[in-house]
Amino acid sequence: MQEFFFSLTWLVPVFPFLAFIIIILFTQKNNKLSHSISIGSMVLSWLLGWGVVFSAITTPHLGEHPFRITIPWFPTGTSTFDIGIWVDPLMAVTLFMVPFVCLMIFIYSVGYMGYGTDEVDPHYSRFFAYIALFATGMLGLVISENLLTLFISWEIMGLCSYLLIGFWFQKNYKDPNKITPRQAGLKAFLVTKVGDLFLMLGILYLYSQAGSLSYADTLFNHEFLKQLASTPALPIFGGWSAASAIAALMFGGAVGKSAQFPLHVWLPDAMEGPTPVSALIHAATMVSAGVFLVARIFPLLNVVVELDHTNPAMGLIAFIGAFTAIFSSLIAVAQKDIKGVLAFSTISQLGYMIAALGIGAYVAGTFHLITHAFFKALLFMGSGSVIIGCHHEQDMMEMGGLKDKMPRTFWTFLAGGLALSGFPLITAGFWSKDEILAHAWHEFLHQGVISWPFFVWLLLTIAAFITAFYTARQISLTFLGKPRGHHAEHAHETPNTMTVPLILLAFFALTLGFVGIPEEIVGQGNNWLHNFIGHEYAATPLSIPIMLLSGSLAIGGLGIGWLVYGRKPLLQGEMDPLEQGMKKIRLGWLYEAMRNKFYFDELYQVIFIQGSIKLAEIFYNFDYKWVVDPFINLIARVSRGISDLLNQFDEKVVDGLVNLTGLSGITLADLSGVTDNKVVDGLVNGIADMTGWVGEKVLSPIQTGKVQNYLLIALISMLAIIGIYLVY
Amino acid sequence: MTIPINWYLLVAAGLFSIGLYGVLSRRNAIGILMGIELMLNAVNINLIAFWRYLDPVRMTGQVFAIFVFTVAAAEVAVGLALVIAIYRNRDTIVIEEIDLLKE
């Protein structure tokens, strides 16, 4: 049975791909058929995917012996690239999350894109084609057996991300500083490409060392990894081992895809896309691909630790993750756009996962990846529901009082928000986040105060508090109090296609954490998730103070948030109380900086965009004004002069010669004509005349017909001949 | 005592000249044929004389003379037949009147 499902794994991404092809080619005109095909393909993928997942769960020792099928794909001279599937625990838990979340979002999109209403999107079918293609990429990435197909899937997702962010490409804003969907799509594409370049370099580096990109030959070949860890890297990496260097390069891809500092700038702007896209791509799945990649290459990181006890690449990863987590949670506090808060929250949570992997918390990072996908998809879809309910109003300052108008949305959003802030015990986010903090604390105890796990722990703990605070702020501003705008006053609950997926996701957002409760609570050997995916790594020991701390921080953050925003609800036109408070204690500048995302967009604008333009101008001038064109013009002028001279020579000398030859020819021809007429013709005629004359006058009379005359002539001739003979 | 070759040659030359004169001066076609026979025989005398005096071992001279006889005989036969045929057509054998070659 398990073998059966495993051998069909390759079909999982094929269904949505077929849906994409069919919709694009045949059913563009028919909205109903298009979304049915798209959702139908996703249902098939989901059922099959969960079949694979449950087969994987029931297979003993899958971690030691992953299931693998490959077929040769294309030869490259000395070796052959394979295409295939790889079923291991990490793949299984990710495959648990991806098709289900995709399916929920597909269904939700039917409502969000206005099916059956007057506001149905003009490119409704195309939207479903694109998200189906996106699902192909994500599922392909999860099941792929080697880094090459992983990279291809990765790029398919990048493409879909671009297409879907810019889905409302005709939209323009009055404010020229507000980024349009077109620009946002381009920005996302270009910024993530920076990361993709590093990923590709990493893959190439690995290929140059291993001669293969298959997981079985590289990432899961312990002998090879050990050898790689003891090989020094290229000099550019300082004293790092090749394993660290490759991991750091490939981590660059994750930085782009998972929007980590310093490539985080694209994700907030990606919210210009339709909200299901934000939920699907920019919260739940695609951005998780970066974390998934880091988890995938975790053996590469871990092997260096095994040999050296420390790995600079992991330090880098942990630092970037932790910094991103706190930095973007600060930005989230000051955002007014309901999706903007969630965007920065996503970046922050991805930072958690990255940091977790960076301190070696493989299980905790993966755990958080899965739980986060559920509750962040839930939050995004809840915010989308709010946006639809409020007639496309996105500013939280204009909302308020939606609790009674949109009860289903409110309660599910509350569940998601609690999970995000890590509300103790009853939410999934608590267990996964706590495990990360506990692992960081444990590493810190192990390594001492000045080690990076300490900073990671400190930053993540502060970020946890801020997360709870901005979640409370968001919920209070959106749902509590009185409506502050006319859109909010006329808000209505959204259709079932949108609320039912919310409820299903809310269930997982609350309960999924129970698969990973530490052993100390549920009993030795009962931490299911750890047993399944992390059997080869030591379990994170439970730390009661840390758990109490993170639980109280979550409750404290939520409580303070509620005190500031919820107890005395904001009135229409009133300033954000946090802004007021910070201005009072002369921190207004900090609030401004937070609201403006610490000016990173402006900084990049100046450095990269203006820099590129300046560079382009320099090259332009180099080309057209300073060097290239003048040089070419000079050459042209010189050539022109030479050609003028040659022209003169041609006209005067060569033409003269030619004409002279021509004239001589004519003269000669004339002469020859005269000769012909006079001399040759004369000769010919003369001979003819003479012959005629001889015939007439001489030969004719001889022919008398008389035999004796003939004989006489013969005699005379004979005598003449003899006479001549005798004389000479 | 042998007769010198010149004598034979003189006899032959005389005979040849008589034959030639006959050929050129006779009006009768038969006479012309007879002149030709004389000329041929003069040649025969020469042939035999040269053989006998210059190369008596080989028989080339004699064989040549026999050929000439044969040719002469054939020639006379043909010539007389022609003369008879002309006579039957034109009732004359005067050579001056027979100028058909001019046509």
Question: Could you give the topology of this structure?
Answer:
The complex is a heterodimer of chains A (728) and B (103).
Chain A lengths: L1 H6 L3 H15 L5 H28 L8 E9 L4 E8 L1 H24 L11 H20 L3 H19 L15 H30 L11 H9 L11 H16 L8 H4 L5 H10 L1 H11 L1 H11 L3 H22 L4 H21 L3 H28 L17 H15 L6 H20 L4 H28 L6 H4 L6 H16 L7 H4 L5 H6 L10 H23 L10 H8 L3 H8 L4 H27 L1 H75 L4 H21 L1
Antiparallel strand pairs in A: 1-2
Helix pairs in contact in A: 2-3, 2-5, 3-4, 3-5, 4-5, 4-11, 4-16, 4-21, 5-6, 6-7, 6-11, 7-9, 8-13, 9-12, 9-13, 9-14, 11-15, 11-16, 12-15, 12-16, 14-15, 14-19, 15-16, 15-19, 16-17, 16-18, 16-21, 17-19, 17-21, 18-19, 18-24, 19-24, 25-26
Chain B lengths: L4 H21 L3 H26 L5 H31 L13
Q: In words, what does this structure look like?
A:
The complex is a heterodimer of chains A (728) and B (103). By secondary structure, chain A is mainly alpha-helical. Chain A is built from 29 helices and 2 strands. In chain A, strands 1-2 form a two-stranded antiparallel ribbon. In chain A, α18 runs antiparallel to α19. The mean pLDDT of chain A is 86. Chain B is mainly alpha-helical and 103 residues long. Chain B has a single domain, classed as Orthogonal Bundle (Helix Hairpins). Chain B contains 3 helices and no strands. In chain B, α1 packs antiparallel against α2 and α2 packs antiparallel against α3. The longest helix of chain B is centred in the C-terminal third of the chain and has 31 residues.
